[in-house]
Amino acid sequence: MPPLSRFAPFPPGGTTPVAWQSQLHGVRRHGLLRGLPTDRARHPTYPESPMRAVLGFTLVELLVAIAVMALLAIVSWRGLDGMVRSQQQTREHADAVLVLQTVMDQWGADLDALQAVEHTEPIAWDGQVLRLTRRGMRQPDEGAIVVAWALRNVDGAAHWLRWQSAPVRTRAEWSDAWDRAARWARTPDEAERRQEAVLMPLAGWQLFFYRGGAWANALSTNTAGSLPQSPGGLNSAAASIPEGVRLQLTLPPGGALAGVITRDWASPVLGGGKS
Known about the structure:
35% of the residues lie in helices and 23% in strands. By secondary structure, the protein is of the alpha+beta class.
């Protein structure tokens, strides 16, 4: 009997279908087909199924790919956000430094221009407002100007402010401007607010005067007994100007600049030059 094959599409020649099925059944009973290769990998000639030829990603692979892409997106976003925040902080710090430099320049200019007029006070500090009499800014004969520096709440936050009067030429005008400066620091009206300048946020400030070779609190040295006396027994306006002024600013926390800043000024009359 010719060898049988399970891959034969029809019975061998001369064999009826019934006899072929009987022979195949007998072969299977006796185990003649045992060990015959049935795997497609062992039979390259066996036709590949069309469904097996289609390749793609499984659901697990898609989920893993989506998770990896999401992780990369989060990392990239955090990096970009850090760069933007760093640039913003650098810009805020530069703006705060520029404002502070401008304010300190104005502070030094006011002290350098102190004007000693008899029967007036060139500079006075009462613990809340610093008032000073300085020369005019435009013309020499413009007259004197009363300037005030104070700490006051603006829009719910403490700010350092500066106020200046119109030029004064008489003692009566000076006295009125001097009183208005003190009133502006506490309860300003609309007219006085229009003459003020909001400078910068500030938590607190202190002043020290240098007299007699030592620094002392400006409030304790701002008394008549501590000032040098003129030959006539009256306090000289020129002698009441301190030899130096030390300013200590306490900047509010949480801003671009924080901490305590100290600025010393020396009187140009004593050869100190600009602060």
